[in-house]
Amino acid sequence: MNKIAFITGATSGIGWATAVALAKVGYRIIATGRRAERLEALQKDIDQAILPLVFDVRDKQAVKAAIASLPTEWQQIDVLLNNAGNAHGLAPIQDGDELDWEMMIDINVKGLLYVSKEIIPFMLKRQAGHIINIGSVAGKEVYANGNVYCASKFAVDALTQGMRLDLNKAGIKVSEVNPGLVQTEFSEVRFKGDKERAETVYQGFQPLLAEDIADLIVFMVTRPAHVNLAEILILPTAQASATTVKKVL
Ligand code: NDP
Ligand code: 8X3
């Protein structure tokens, strides 16, 4: 196989695990994120050569320049995984921090758009490709204090539907994966490096692992050409809704 996957947010969590899993089934990986040293470490986890691209998805010019720098032999992108994103803060709307709001909208929504805009032309040229956006259960259900993070993931949901409508005639698949609680660096980022608080989010039940999402993505991209798993909600067995988790304490 000589397929190529372009993964945003490959320095950690879901993006990292998916890079490893797709490489195992033969994909060549373009791995992106801001932390160059993590991309170097990822290379050690993967047998074949990966192409690291270091950029901040908020920086439109950096996104354009990075993708424009792709050598011809890396431009035939089969899968775009729009995964880069995080929650920043967890506060009632009246106490929200504008910088947190801006980060979530700039990364989770605008960053996804900037990257997609640069990759879609490669897919249009070949009238083929598969875009998978990582949404969230938080893009289906709003929870208390989740306000802007939830809004950013509702936006991902709307954009996924819009992209599917607009790219359908070009033969490009567009899918969305909406995970529940996955134990990654997500909560550490949300709580600004407070590891202890982050750990409490996943205590008393078995959360999903990044590898569970990676497995699902491998399954999605290996379906026959006529099958698109358009939208999947994936929860830990202990989780029934965004806020209902069976904890055994
Ligand atoms: P992690 O914090 O482990 O990973 C986030 C990734 O996003 C990192 O690789 C990070 O790379 C990248 N990223 C963040 N900001 C930027 C930026 N400005 N520019 C470029 N890359 C950026 O969290 P997850 O793996 O859990 O999160 C991945 C996706 O999954 C996110 O979209 C998240 O919203 C979603 N999700 C997570 C769930 C969970 O419970 N964990 C549940 C549902 C959805 P770097 O810092 O190196 O730039
Ligand atoms: C991440 C899941 O419930 O922590 O999108 O918001 S949650």
Automatic annotation (TrEMBL):
Protein's name in the database: SDR family NAD(P)-dependent oxidoreductase
Keywords: Oxidoreductase
Assigned protein family: Belongs to the short-chain dehydrogenases/reductases (SDR) family.
Stored InterPro entries: NAD(P)-bd_dom_sf, Sc_DH/Rdtase_CS, SDR_fam
PROSITE patterns associated with the record: ADH_SHORT
GO molecular function: oxidoreductase activity, acting on the CH-OH group of donors, NAD or NADP as acceptor
SUPFAM superfamilies, alphabetized: NAD(P)-binding Rossmann-fold domains
Native species: Adhaeribacter radiodurans
